[in-house]
Design a protein that fits this description.
- The chain has 21 helices and 19 strands.
- It is an alpha+beta fold.
- Strands 2, 3, 4, 5 and 10 form a 5-stranded mixed β-sheet that branches. A 5-stranded antiparallel β-sheet has the order 12-11-19-18-17, sandwiched between helices. It has a 3-stranded antiparallel β-sheet with strand order 1-8-9.
- A hairpin with a 5-residue loop joins strand 8 and strand 9.
- The termini are far apart.
Length: 604
């Protein structure tokens, strides 16, 4: 009996010990369960979501760009692209032949192209096989999805430019951001992210770009879509309205394309500086750049000696030739030259031991200022220049907007060059000589101006206002101030000279009949020597540049038209006929685009 009691006590103690151990283990398990499920639920829920939830960036449609009448120039459109699911990109090389078999055509993806695309994409992005696939191809992929499950058709966005070559140097183009650009964006990188690379697309990139959205979707173990969990829609970029007249811009493009020459044309609203057209040739197609330019197209444009990516209208300075005589004339008037006093032109002008010629070897005879402008007489302006000197000519040039950037809303604007005595001393450590002034007085020597500066100076002469150029529709309403330091009487003399140039017998462009009824044109031609005269017959690149700048109608200026044709030989020969066609277009008259190829007259 005693043994039975002893065994029972021993069993009870063991039971208590074992129960305690079990209770301790259970408490540990329950405690750990509480810790994981309650205390750390957020952390492990997040880890779980990373395995089953996919965050997809929704690119923002880029803002539209429209002309002054709200005609669309550039917009963002949706399209469909053929892709491989991010979880299966390693199988791309094997999948591509299968896809091509189903589509019935090649995707033209070499091993090198595939390698570049794989490197370019981020980890969670699909691999794009083809952009802008057709409805027929979409149907074929859908019907055969069981054979190529990792291949998906997804929606994408693309930037499109209507008549891209006509607007290329205004709008610029967009492309994928480089590393430096990404650092400044404060945005995650994703496949459809595009930034402005040049033109207005770059200047106003932030406004046009908009704000990307996102969506969270649930996917299965194969990365296939299950359901959408949440979404924040993207916000489209702002619309940009320009001062450009799209139909006029396209017309200018058509004219310059016919010539197949390097040229620049600017058409302004004379009263406000609003740019109605601005074109540079050769041009390029910005549509080629949005989704990555092909090597073939890149080689084509970079191999073009005309540098299609450079905007000649604002970035290239030219010798202004005889158009600069307007500056010399203004300087003379400001500094007391009598515009009625006549100067004898015999066909040449002597200064020291040097002789400077006139374009008219027979001479113009006696001329006052107005007729000297109209007939572009070199010796008249040589004479004025020796009276006023280069420093005063430079002052007049700066009043008209030369030697500084105009402030147009485009990148890489060149400030040109208006030399004076200090400039030459600093640049070349040399004194300024009378021959330097003579050359400068007719826009040769060191003088350089851009086409946009030439247009702005013409607008200031035409209106007497401090005109600045703008491409933005909401900026043109600003009222320009008076052009200080220049009297109306002085400007009237120069305007009359420009009027006679186009409308009076003996005027350099009179024979072209620039005026259209009561719509009278006032203008000034220029021929800028770019090489020794002995070389001008040795090929096009040695021929003179041709310039023509003008305003109309003369009694109440509404428009400024400025044309520069590289190696066009003469302003009246190559540049003025283009301007006439533009005025015909502005007046709603029939135009003759082919006529610009048939003019053979000589110019000053």
């Amino acid at each position: 009996m005693r043994d039975e009691i002893k065994k029972l006590k021993l069993f009870s103690r063991r039971s208590v010990v074992l129960g305690g151990i079990k209770l301790a283990l259970l408490s540990t398990v329950l405690g750990r369960y509480y810790y994981l499920q309650i205390m750390k639920s957020d952390r492990y829920s997040t880890l779980s979501d990373k395995n089953r939830i996919k965050l997809i960036i929704l690119p923002a449609p880029r803002g539209r760009i429209v002309d002054k009448d709200n005609n669309e120039i550039s917009a963002t459109s949706t399209h469909f692209r053929l892709t491989i699911n991010p979880l299966h990109t390693k199988e791309a090389k094997e999948l591509i032949p299968e896809v091509e078999k189903i589509l019935g055509h090649s995707l033209y993806i070499s091993d090198e192209i595939l390698r570049r695309r794989l490197l370019k994409r981020t980890r969670n992005e699909p691999l794009v096989l083809e952009e802008n696939i057709s409805w027929q191809d979409m149907a074929r992929v859908s019907e055969n999805n069981h054979l190529i499950e990792p291949v998906e058709v997804i929606e994408g966005i693309s930037r499109t430019y209507n008549n891209g070559e006509a607007f290329a140097h205004i709008l610029g183009y967009i492309g994928s951001p480089n590393e430096k650009e990404m650092e400044s964006l404060d945005l995650p990188k994703f496949g459809d992210l595009r930034v402005g690379k040049s033109g207005l697309e770059r200047v106003f990139d932030q406004q046009l770009r908009g704000t990307p959205g996102y969506k969270k979707v649930e996917v299965d173990v194969h990365g296939q879509f299950v359901r959408e969990i949440s979404r924040q829609d993207a916000v489209q970029g702002e619309q940009l309205q320009l001062t450009i007249d799209a139909s006029l811009q396209e017309f200018v493009h058509a004219i310059l394309s016919k010539r197949a020459a390097d040229a620049a044309v600017i058409v302004l609203n004379a009263k406000t500086g609003a740019v109605l057209a601005l074109h540079s040739t050769p041009s390029f197609d910005p549509n080629q750049f949005a989704d990555g330019v092909t090597q073939e197209y890149w080689d084509e444009i970079t191999g073009n000696s005309g540098n299609p990516l450079i905007n000649n209208a604002v970035s290239i300075p030219y010798p202004p030739g005889s158009t600069f005589k307007l500056v010399t004339a203004l300087s003379g008037l400001i500094n007391g030259i009598d515009p009625e006093k006549k100067v004898l032109c015999t066909g040449s002008y002597s200064s020291g031991t040097r002789s400077f010629r006139c374009w008219n070897a027979n001479g113009h005879g006696y001329l006052g200022m107005k007729d000297a402008i109209a007939q572009s007489c070199n010796p008249y302006f040589y004479t004025i220049s020796q009276s006023v000197g280069i420093n005063k000519i430079a002052q007049a040039a700066r009043l008209l907007g030369y030697d500084r950037k105009t402030g147009i809303e485009l990148l890489d604007e060149h400030k040109g060059l208006i030399p004076d005595t200090n400039w030459k001393k600093e640049r070349y450590k040399e004194n300024w000589y009378p021959g330097d002034t003579i050359n400068a007085s007719i826009g040769q020597g060191y003088v350089l101006v851009t086409p946009i500066q030439l247009a702005i100076s013409t607008a200031r002469i035409a209106t007497g206002k401090l005109i600045y150029p703008t491409l933005l529709h909401n900026h043109e309403e600003a009222q320009p101030s008076e052009l200080s330091g220049v009297s109306k009487e002085h400007l009237d003399i120069i305007r009359e000279g420009m009027y006679r140039c186009a409308n009076q017998p003996g005027g350099v462009v009179f024979r072209h009949q620039m005026s259209i009824g009561d719509f009278t044109v006032a203008g000034k031609t220029g021929t800028a020597q770019v090489a020794d005269m002995k070389l001008k017959d040795k090929g096009r690149k040695f021929k003179h540049h041709a310039l023509f700048t003008s305003f109309a109608p003369t009694h109440d200026p509404q428009y400024v038209v400025t044309v520069v044709v590289e190696h066009g030989e003469g302003g009246a020969k190559s540049a003025a006929p283009i301007a006439k066609q533009i005025y015909l277009k502005l007046m709603g008259k029939p135009t003759e685009i082919d006529a610009v190829n048939n003019i053979v007259d000589e110019d000053a």
